[in-house]
From TrEMBL:
This protein's name: Niban-like protein 1
Gene3D superfamilies named among the record's database cross-references: Pleckstrin-homology domain (PH domain)/Phosphotyrosine-binding domain (PTB)
InterPro entries: Niban-like, Niban_1/2/3_dom, PH-like_dom_sf, PH_domain
Species assigned in the record: Sinocyclocheilus anshuiensis
Family of this protein: Belongs to the Niban family.
Bilayer-spanning residue ranges: none
Domain PH: 67-188
Annotated Pfam families: Niban2, PH_Niban2
Length: 698
């Protein structure tokens, strides 16, 4: 393996790779410009105030504290020895996959054999699908057979366009489905964008990246904006470097097609690692320069904020007067006719997914009520609450919700709007589903915990019923709010790049002359390019907001009007805690772990349960139950394998009327929480519905 890499990546080619990372210099100029603009926007927001609509559900501060997602053994193909070996995999709260020789090695705290960060990867379950991606990526003659043979019928493959591929397999289909759900969750988490808590660095980075790509003629969504800043920049470099090296190296590789494909993957991985190392170093240096300058910029902003705002408004008025007629003409002829059809294509699968989240939430809460009625002791309640606490982070439980979103079809937008694929929107909606599920579960926990004080065990079932109904109604409202925001952002993400691509050739040459209207001291914070994009954004935003508002007024897909619920309707609820409740410790009499470091990591509670297979040999450790691991069962007793839609649980607890609060979601007349709410979706299949939607004329 080393010979292949060293032979084809000599000093000359490595210097060529280093030279390609000079894109960081050009990106750095964009970043420094956008950093000052982002700081201006942040300080202005801080001074002028404002905020988002207050949600009805609570948000958990650190939901995965002292938790792990999954662990177990499977077979991995080792490139070095070209053999399959048993490996123990551990997926912690970071969603990185750590590989160990055995479970015993993990339990003893030995160093892992490797760690997989899943940013940019795709989780596959068939060699046919993998070969299709492999042949498309290498642009080679299609291989009829894979270059490795899987010892079982249930492979699991992590594929990446640039980095090393990872091959696993398991013994049963049930294990394959569970591991596939876990791998998909790792990918989903790693691809979930940059931290929104960084109010300056994150918008500066994303805007700089967008402007850099637009300068190269690339508008629209980008599938490889995955991982942290260094990983994203490495993908940016590899986007152009990868095809150049492939054309240079692949024709010189020797051997059969399968061997050449394998060698090229190893070379590509080595290049990717070198590029990542360089982009990480350069980005850290760039970020440090901006952070050092931040105090001076911040001081200047706070001193001259009023004058800067006045100057910006003056320049904005001049630019809008020039470009607005062209923008409005484009909106009328090329955008307005298609907003509703694109919105409908987004609403259908998204609303199905959020409806499925509600169904699963309702099913789990009913199970708590049922178990509490059978045994109303506080110790048993603690056990049941502890099990549902991590429901949102159970990839197997949530898979049916995520699967609804996979039906999103934006066919017709790829060429016109430069939408590479719907994966950006699919993964974002899936993350929002997980967040709403966790918010609902956390709110239910807090309400139940608060209600336990001063109540007897006889009232426990009624208390749980009231909390359940209250949470479900709050979920309905927050689900509507989150989906409307998602629809608006998705429409902007689709339409704005298209408009900029159409308008830039005629408008951009006229923008530099407006720089003369900006005082030199304010030129760091006022950029004419940003003002032009703001004008485009404002011109189409009103049409998008109107389309979403019309859908809410008509109650399509169970969307609510913004005026239906007061934003401050339940102030007492938000006085409750943000931390996860230790149900086992408080009601079950089990003391929480006080240990830290590696020992605490190895004793973390696991969210997904292990699989037990009778008759499996001992070395295959994923088949063994781990004693003392608390987890959420995948199926109810006697209901294994049944779909949630085929049989809904019946609430055994007598309905207790809820005291309705004026202006709160509890006061909205909704369907009974014991019935499945259909979010305005027809019984016909998603695919057939979306197939009738015309997104853009060819």
């Amino acid at each position: 393996m080393g010979d292949v890499i060293s032979t084809n990546l000599d000093e000359g080619k490595r210097e060529m790779i280093t030279g390609k990372t000079t894109v960081m210099a050009e990106f750095g100029r964009f970043y420094e410009q956008q950093y000052a603009v982002a700081l201006f926007n942040s300080v202005r927001y801080e001074i002028e105030g404002g905020g988002n609509t207050q949600t009805q559900l609570l948000h958990r501060k650190d939901p995965l504290k002292n938790k792990s997602i999954f662990s177990g053994s499977l077979f991995q193909y080792l490139e070095e020895s070209k053999k399959w070996r048993s490996r123990f995999l551990y997926v912690g709260d970071s969603y990185n996959i750590s590989l160990y020789e055995s479970k015993a090695a993990h339990d003893r705290g030995l160093h892992s054999k490797g760690v997989i960060n899943c940013a940019g990867y795709r989780a596959l379950t068939s060699m046919e699908e993998y070969l299709g991606l492999l042949n498309n990526n290498t642009k080679a003659k299609s291989a009829s057979a894979p270059f490795l043979k899987c010892p079982t019928q249930f492979p699991l493959i992590l594929w990446h366009p640039y980095a090393r591929h990872h091959y696993f397999c398991v013994m049963t289909e049930k294990e394959q489905k569970k591991w596939h759900a876990v791998f998909q969750d790792c990918v989903r988490h790693s691809n979930n964008g940059l931290s929104e808590e960084c109010k300056v660095a994150t918008p500066a980075f994303t805007d700089a990246l967008r402007l850099y790509r637009q300068a190269k003629g690339h508008y629209g969504t980008w599938d490889m904006m995955c991982g942290n800043q260094a990983q994203i920049l490495a993908n940016l470099v590899m986007e152009t470097l990868h095809p150049e090296l492939k054309n240079l190296i692949v024709p010189r590789l020797k051997g059969k097609l399968q061997q050449r494909q394998r060698d090229w993957m190893l070379i590509s991985d080595a290049v990717c690692r070198q590029v990542l190392s360089q982009t990480k170093t350069q980005h850290e240096a760039l970020a440090q320069v901006c952070e050092v300058e931040r105090p001076r910029l911040d001081s200047a902003l706070r001193t001259d904020m009023d004058q800067i705002i006045t100057s910006k408004e003056h320049v904005s008025g001049k630019i809008r007067a020039l470009v607005l007629p062209r923008i409005e003409q484009l909106v009328r002829s090329k955008v307005q006719p298609y907003i509703h059809s694109i919105l409908e294509a987004l609403m259908e699968p998204t609303s199905r997914g959020f409806s499925e989240v509600r169904d699963i939430l309702f099913s789990e809460l009913v199970e708590v009520s049922k178990n509490t009625m059978n045994d109303s002791s506080r110790g048993k309640l603690g056990e049941h609450m502890d099990k549902i606490s991590m429901l949102a982070f159970h990839p197997v439980k949530m898979q049916s919700c995520y699967g609804k979103m996979e039906a999103l079809n934006l066919e017709g937008l790829q060429q016109r709007c430069d939408v590479s694929s719907p994966s950006v929107f699919i993964q974002r909606a899936q993350v929002l589903m997980r967040q709403q599920m966790d918010n609902a579960v956390h709110t239910f926990e807090q309400l139940v915990h608060q209600s336990l004080d001063g109540h007897s065990t006889e009232d426990l079932c009624k208390t749980i019923q009231r909390c359940q109904d209250r949470v479900l109604k709050k979920y309905d409202y927050d689900s509507s709010t989150v989906r409307k925001k998602f629809f608006r952002e998705a429409l902007l993400q689709i339409i704005i790049p298209y408009m900029l691509k159409q308008l830039s050739p005629s408008c951009s040459p006229d923008l530099p002359k407006f720089k003369e209207l900006i005082f030199e001291d304010f030129s760091r914070f006022i950029l004419v390019e940003n003002i032009f994009e703001e004008a485009v954004l404002q011109s189409v935003s009103k049409d998008i907001m109107m389309a979403v508002k019309e859908a809410a007024v008509q109650r399509r897909h169970n969307l609510y009007r913004d005026s239906m619920v007061l934003t401050n309707s339940d102030l007492n609820l938000h006085l409750l805690g943000e931390d996860t409740i230790d149900w086992a410790g408080q009601l079950g009499g089990v003391k929480g772990e006080k240990q830290g470091g590696e020992m605490a990591n190895r004793k973390r509670k696991q969210i997904v349960s292990m699989i037990h297979l009778d008759g499996m040999p001992l070395p295959y450790e994923s088949c063994q139950e781990i004693p003392g691991v608390d987890c959420i069962p995948e199926e109810y007793e006697g209901q294994a394998g049944q779909d949630l839609e085929s049989k809904k649980p019946v609430n055994p607890v007598q309905h207790v009327p809820i005291e309705k609060e004026p202006g709160s979601p509890d006061g909205i007349e909704l369907q009974s929480s014991r019935q499945r709410i259909e979010v305005g979706v027809e019984k016909s299949s998603v695919g057939s519905h979306l197939g009738s939607v015309t997104l853009w004329k060819p």
